[in-house]
Queue: 4 jobs
Job 1
Amino acid sequence: MSVQAQMTRKIPRPFLMRGKPRVTEERPTIHEPPDWRVPEVKRTAPIPANVLRMLARERALDPRFRPVDRYLWRWSVGQGTGLPPDDEAADMLPESRPTALAPDEAIVVDMAIIHSAPWARDFLFMWFRSPLSIEEIGERLKIRARGVYEVRREAMAYYLGLLHGIGISIPTWEPEE
């Protein structure tokens, strides 16, 4: 570098704050005692029973049975009992509903449902084809309302096996190992 370039180049200086120095307040650290106005939350290890209760809520349907549930909703929207729904039954169906099964598939499913176990068939008609509440379904089955969800799981497992047995494959969720 030439002497001229060295002279024109600025020499870096440390930053100096103008004015007299200020004394700042001490900042709290993690070693300071907690504020007495804020309640202290003690962290504990999660209890396995509580974790299972959160994951398997009583109303939640097992992910493996959700496709069967959707398939049966499609069945209930269509012919369902082999006959078109009457005006009252059509009014109770939700505004936005799934697409109905193809007619030939619906007939096969109707036959399978009609010849299924009475407990499962009765529950299926009460759950999918009637405007009954959970409490009313429980009264008819002579169980508590909370038990209706357990019967629903059993019915979904039953119909998953039944539909698979007659050749209707419904893809289900399988946990990865």
Job 2
Amino acid sequence: MLDFQRLNETVKKMEVATLVRQLEALEKEKVVREETIRSVLAESTVRLAQNADWIPYQTAKVAADAREISRLEHKIVKAHEALEDKKFELGKLAMKRKAIENLREKKKFAFRVDETRREQKNNDEMYRLLKKSGT
């Protein structure tokens, strides 16, 4: 039972790690898109002086990147929610494992106490029999 619980906990940890990596990738992609928009807007003054045909491209590029950033932000929010859910589940699994470990320790302790009592009872019986046969 404890091994199964540990396995579930390990699987959940792996799921959390995967979500963290996905979240980092989404945030990195968002930063790249934001930097792309900044660079396009920074280049616009130079390019507009050279060629007015740059305006439709610039507008389309900025709009497309803005839509992508919005989509990424939505995905990031969903990923944060999923991550929080997985962390909560991981916490529940860790508490279950701890409870099982505590129960196991209590059973071990109770077994040791019973074993010590049996040994003491046997020793007392042996002493009583030896004393009885010796007198």
Job 3
Amino acid sequence: MKTCTSAMALNLLLVATVTPAHACRMNARLDLQDVKQASIVVVGKIWDYEVVPGQPGKPGFGRFKVLVSEVLVGQSPKSLVVTWFNSTFGYPDKLAEGRALIALREINYPKPNTLMVLQTPCSQPFIFQSTSAEAEGVRKILSEK
């Protein structure tokens, strides 16, 4: 009887604590120093945002275009297609279009040399209004590099 009770208690504990791997119990504090992990940092106009639904075995993602007006790190063409994997919070129906500072990393999914929005787990993405305090902080960090 004692063994059965212990096993039931353990099962209840496991069921109560198991959460999906992509879920976050708490949002992580944004650390602007993470911008140092970016391959490319640009300022530009965001447009043509869409959510690409997932397929069996492949996650969905957000995608948008950027008309680049300033390159802060790396090399960039005048126009970029950007992928955003945001499994932490899901994807908004609409992304504010306009000038933004965006930090990106190169990955090889869904195709080689894809530019992905920099976003540490459980934190907000590195997409900031170009005149925001966060964008100013990123510029300061990059100038100290």
Job 4
Amino acid sequence: MPGSGDANVVSFGAIIENTSGAVAHDSVVSIWLVDADGERIDGPVEGASAFDQRLTRLLPGERVGVGATQSVSDEVADLDVEIKPATEWLALDREYWLHQPVVARDVTIVRVPGSTTIEFTVDAAYTSEMVPGGFGTRGDYIAIFRDAAGTLVGGVDCCVPLAASDVVSPGRSRGALALHYGVPERADDSHTEVYVLLG
């Protein structure tokens, strides 16, 4: 399965791509964990999915990762991924700050006794003049783990920006993800990807 872990902890993820020529606004991705009998496992709330991620925008051709690492009560055999379609499909406006690309690069995993952190550089193409207030916008960071062959083996969310804020500043900045459960055993550090989801 596209996840990794033992009977108590599972790491999972998926890649979502906008194959259209328009900007998708306000999609929702839900990931359900499935047991060996094909039954969906309840998430943190009974009857709910294990993970929900709102995608404020997805640019034409853009690919983003979604995923998490969680403690579970049942053994996980598979995933179901559901996508609630965008509420709006808009033409790309290269002057609008929310339609500017934002990417994470220079991803490194730092291990010290008692903690593991993913650190990275964020490049946001919007400028302070474009953004209301000039400060940036809220963002979430999600990491996708792959093995040495490039197969997706897990994911993690929940950002801990280095500036003690969840604002993605215009231009270049630094970000980090603190990993409560560490990196999946099958993951290859050099294949780790980070995606910035603007809120």
